[in-house]
C-alpha cells in the first residue's frame, strides 16, 4: 500500500493562520487547526502560532520522536527543551495545581492531526498541452506517481485525464513516479551550471484522446 498524500513545503507554508494552521516535523505534515481552536486564547499557543506553516523538526529528537530534552540547571532534572517558550501539553518546569495531564496523548504524538507526508525532494516539471499549446510549470513531489501529478494539474485542465501523457514520445506509466518513468531530476545540474530551471526543466507532453473525461 502506498503511503498517504505527499505535500511540498510550499503547500504547507500556505496554511499559516489561526484558522488554518499546519506544520511539518520529522517527515510528516500536521493540521493543528483543531488544537488551536481548542486552546484559543491560551498563551501556550504562541510558539506554535509563530511557526505556522513551517517545519519544526528541530523541536524533536528524531530517535525518540519526542520533544528535545536537557538538564535543567536549577533542578538538575531532565526537562523538555523549549527555547521558544513552553507550549501546549508541555508540563511546567515546577509542579503546579493549575496544570492537568489528563489530556491523553500530547499533540505531537496524536495521529489525528496527521494529514500526510512531507516530500523529501520536490522538483519542477513543464506540462505542455499539444492541443492548445498551453505550457504550465508545476512543482511536484519526487515521490508522487504520474496519477498523483495529474491530480495537481487538474486545476489548470479539468480534462487532464482525457490526454495521453508522454515524454520524448514515449507513453508514461501513470502508476509510476517520474524517476521510474526515466525522467531524471536535473535540478542540481541546473544549479551547478547556472541554467534557468524554468527554461530547461523536463517536459511532459499531453496528447488529446478525443474524449472529455473530467475528474
From TrEMBL:
Gene Ontology biological process terms, A to Z: cilium movement; regulation of cilium beat frequency
Gene3D superfamilies in alphabetical order: Cytochrome b5-like heme/steroid binding domain (3.10.120.10)
Keyword Transmembrane helix attributed: no
Compartments, as annotated in UniProt: Cytoplasm, Cytoskeleton, Cilium axoneme
Gene Ontology terms for molecular function: metal ion binding
Span of domain Cytochrome b5 heme-binding: 4-70
Any one cellular-component term (Gene Ontology): axoneme
SMART domains for the chain: Cyt-b5
Keywords recorded for this protein, A-Z: Cell projection, Cytoplasm, Cytoskeleton, Heme, Iron, Metal-binding
Main function: Radial spoke stalk protein that binds heme under oxidizing conditions. Required for the coordinated beating of multiple cilia maybe by functioning in a redox signaling pathway.
Similarity section: Belongs to the cytochrome b5 family.
Protein's recorded name: Cytochrome b5 domain-containing protein 1
Species for this entry: Hucho hucho
